[in-house]
Amino acid sequence: MTKELIHATMAITEITTGRVAAAPADTRSDEESAALGRAERLDALLGDPHDPANPHGLTALIAADGRREPPAATEQLLVETGLGAEFVPAEFGGLLTRADLLATALRPVFRRDVALGFGYGITSLFGTAAVWAAGTKEQRADTAALLLGGGRASIVHHEVAHANAILRDEFTATPGPVGYTLNGRKDVIMNASRSGAYVVYARTAPERGPRSHSVLLLRPDELPAGTVTKLPRVPTPGMRGGLFSGLEFTGCPVPSDALVGRPGEGVALALRTFQVNRCLIPALAVSAAGTVLHSAVRAVSAGRAGRTVRRWQKPLTGVFADLLACDSMATVALRSLSLLPERTHVLAAAVKYVVPDLLREDLEALASVLGSHGYEHGSPQYGSLDKLVRDLPVAGLGHAGTAACQAVIVPQLRSLAERSWFRAEEPPSELFRRGSDLPALDYRLLGIANGDDFLSASLIGSAARLAGTRAVGGHMAALGELAETFVNELRGLRAQCLRIPQDRAALTDPAVVVLGDRYAMILAAASVLGIWEGQDGSDPFLADPAWAVLALTRLGRRLGIAVPELPDGVLDQVLKELVGRYVAGRSCDLDGRRLVQ
User: Fold this and answer.
1) Phi and psi for 325 in degrees, rounded to 5?
2) Do 109 and 47 meet the contact criterion of CB atoms below 8 Å apart?
3) pTM to 2 decimals?
4) Buried b / exposed e across 85-124, counting CB within 10 Å, b at 16+?
5) What pLDDT, in 10s, does the model give residues 290-318?
């Protein structure tokens, strides 16, 4: 039996005897502790989100959203705290070392308001990613200075298939003797009216193909008068806080030194750098969903001395298990960006594909639990549901975001089945273990799909290590059976993917796309098992298999595969932890950190 299984067995004894730790012991690395410290300081500055008198609380944030304007006071607070340094790599004077630690630092913002996190901050990271990956020394220094000084950068997307308003329309940059001439109009760009830099994915070749676009770094105050027009704010059904407006370029001359990377490298840079976005957004959305889960527990336990209404216990524990599964998948992917940067492309797309869908289902379940409280849209206790339901589709780019992730996953299925599944080596154990020293995130090292799947290898390894747990019985036996069930699902998936025709038309066949859905869920299951195995016993709840059993059972049922019945005590243990976290004011993610409230 491995060390991790021994810890888990010990944890079972602790829980069944009623001794559950109030909070996990601190086994973090220095880097992890520093990021957590910054998050705790920011949380304290933002104050109790449920206090109606707090100018940075949910009452004020929801009110600003209702006025369709950004929450100016809170954004100014974020500027004054130096949040912009989180988006600048440490080598250029910022605080960005690892993507998973960036998620830790940003969670206090996103647990209050996803739109606030996008309006001040995270879109600047998305925009400047191409600069960190391929910019010149001067471009990186200028961009770092902008963000460190509290400025913003906007990403100006190229047009894609299945486009929504954000991804519709694009700019054309015509090459000339001394640079480019930029033309076009785009009506929906986040922060276009107040950014100090535009990172434009502009069409530089008329034909379609991988070299059709280039990236240009523009400073609006340096563009000739009369060549660029800032268009009015655009009302949107989600993220109503006045974040979106447009730009129109008319014969705008752009110097050659505005080019980021090489001519025609725009598509490749997008494929490489968008991996960070695809992992980070789901991780932060989990924090926002955790706020709604807390409000649901409040609704069904108010006046009951911490006890919850019985009929809502199953959906509450199910949502909690889903959040832990989502956070497991996002965390593994975020760490992979540092540890395995050339091999994370497909996993990143799978995270962006799976997590928003699970969270949407969970919000529907929580709406039922909240009942009439869910209609208290301006309430600091219950208004987070309505706002997140509107904000989440915008954060995930809706159907366009889903289609983009499918376009990464589906073409790789046959290759993965032929070359990787049941052949690849397991990833280093540091990928799943808190306290591990990982390399810094380096955008220059991020690769594009290479036909390798380390997470399926981890799934197979987990199942093999759990094969002898039937003798332990109870939750451990259930976990071992679930692990083997998902390995069998992978085996069946491999057989089907080997039969995918080798032509592009097959990639849009709904039957093939469904195989991508199944594969993404298998990666989620592998992440749960990896995170559970990586526990060192410092958090008795996470070391116990109950949460993993419930999370995997729910994933399996979504796939429509036969899973064993939940063992006795699983729901009770997960519910006890959820209520304990609510009472103690701890988050509903893997960190379980104490929140300001």
Assistant:
1) -65, -45
2) no
3) 0.92
4) bbbbbeebebbbbbbbbbbbbbbbbbbbbbbbbbbbbbbb
5) 999 999 999 998 766 556 678 889 999 99
